[in-house]
Write a structure and sequence with these properties.
The protein has helices spanning about 10-30, 65-80, 80-90, 95-125, 130-140, 150-175, 180-210, 210-225, 235-245, 250-265, 275-315. By secondary structure, it is mostly helical. This is Acyl-ACP desaturase.
Length: about 325
Amino acid sequence: MGSTAKTTVELLHALEPVVETELNRHLATAKEWFPHDYVPWSEGRNYDGLMGGEAWSPEDSDMPTTVRDSLIVNLLTEDNLPSYHFEIATTFGRDGAWGTWVHRWTAEEARHGIAIRDYLTVKRIVDPVELERARMSHMQEGYTNDHDGQMLHALAYVSFQELATRIAHRNTGRAAGDPLCEQLLARVAADENLHMLFYRNLLNAAFDISPDQTMRAVTDVVKAFQMPGHGIPGFTRKAFNIAMEGIYDLRLHHDDVLSPVLRQWNVFDRTGLSGDGERAREELATFLGDLDKTATRFEERREARRARLAATAES
């Protein structure tokens, strides 16, 4: 028999003991680290402007353009932290274990933007003027989740999003050709993985409390999923380049983000669903099948494009 729908207040109250358990596990597992340790300060030099140094030039760095695009997208996504904090604080509250987690998560996330920006600026990998203009534009747009503050939807979204961000950071670091960049982004990705575990375990508990509601939330989020940086100026072009490079694409999204999290929640073998919960699960299965086909078509087009480029280079 399916579950009776619960209000947000009931869900927050029912999940609070799980939040406290997961918070204590997180605090025992998380490792202290410092952004300044990942920045090669001795390589820096003054820019033009007030300091009278040299203006930025694309020749200042030999990092591949696609990796630069990915670093910019990753950084500008991290920059919108004030909006993310507002969203989760409004949804989860600022009291008790929920509030402690919200502020701890925010403090940890803030390190990511600090470290990546300092690294990019010191290494002169991107134009700092254009980067700042993009930051201003993106942050002025703010961020609003697509599900109007619904608590279970918010938990489902961050479970997938934190894992997607971890993968994007790790793959960007590997493609950078700079051991320090890879080390920095691996450190950031480790934080994102711990955040994913917190949210994933919390939503797993929500399935036990209100399975039909939770299944509907998961399906809604999977079908409408967008990365939080989709409002970044030039995002569509950058995302295409990132996908073409294999840093983050539909195949990774299907195989390495959606599938493992859904498997952890045992969504396709769960019992106790009825009504909308069963319908939501059927919708989810259909959507995943279609996404898998779309990912395969993209891979085929990408390989054909690479083959054409290779043939052109040889001629």
